[in-house]
Amino acid sequence: MPVEPAQFFTEQLERAQSGFAIASTNKNAQLAALNLRQAFRHRLMLGLLTWRQGSNPTSYLASAVQQLNEAHLVVQQWDARFDVGASLPMATSALISVLVAKEPTKATSPSNGLAADVRLDLLLAGGNPDPLLANGALGDLRRSKRTHLAADTYENYLRILASKGEPERLETACRLGEKLFSARSNDPFFSGGHQIEGGGPNNELIVDYRLAAALKLAQATVPSVHAWRW
Predict the structure, then answer these.
(1) Which residues of 199-217 are buried (b: 16+ CB within 10 A; e: fewer)?
(2) Contacts of 198 (CB under 8 A, 6+ apart)
């Protein structure tokens, strides 16, 4: 694992955990949600760094999902007016749950009220996406030139799911997925997002967890740095 990024995200995780402890003492739901969100992403980032280096990231990913699952409903009890689930990365957690074989919290559904990428994440995590919902979300992404790479990427994830049982198609889609992920290094949309998305300099340090989830759901056996093998 690269030393500097790992140390940075470990320190950030400790800060988020400390912030969550303070919020819990005061039963401050909004502050708790903020720190839960940060802790989840920092754990995920540590797992993705570990994964790219060829080591088993399961402990990081499983603990990220577990804390979100356990804390979500508890925090919600502190403030009935605040929608905790809407402020947490539940869709991302659902995808990671696919990899570590944990049951995701059913906090959100892929409704039109959510951002297109969140809807697509939930559809992807379900393993058998509704074509109408998927095409609608893809159409929303294609409305902006800035998110065309994201649309192409999600379309390929869906292609992988549809290719279950077809090794040649899965191989082709996996290789395309690798190229699309590499393209994030120079893409403004991904470079402006969180580090877990692999934009900018983070591209060579981590893997595409969505591609991994799609390949696992399709029961693909294609060798790739992005494939889940634990």
Answers:
(1) bbebbebbbbbbbbbbbbb
(2) 181, 184, 185, 190, 206, 207, 208
Any idea which of 2-6, 134-138, 224-228 has the lowest mean pLDDT? 2-6
- The whole-number pLDDT of residue 148 equals 96
Query: Are residue 41 and residue 66 in the same domain, yes or no?
Result: yes
Q: Are 83 and 72 in contact (CB under 8 A)?
A: no
- pTM of the prediction? 0.93
d(CA 59, CA 56): 8
Contact between 123 and 129 under an 8 Å Cβ cutoff? The reply is: yes
pLDDT tens by residue, 145-161: 999 999 999 999 999 99
Range of the domain at 38: 1-108
Residue labelled with tokens 């893997």:
207
The pair of structure tokens assigned to 105 is 């919290």
Let me know whether 117 and 225 are in one domain. Answer: yes
Question: What's the whole-number average pLDDT of the chain?
Answer: 93
Q: pLDDT tens for residues 34-85?
A: 999 999 999 999 999 999 999 999 999 999 999 999 998 899 999 989 998 8
**Which residues lie closer than 8 Å to 103 by C-beta, 6 or more apart?**
69, 97
Residue 15 CA to residue 217 CA, distance in Å, equals 34
* Residue 123 near residue 134 (C-beta atoms within 8 A): yes
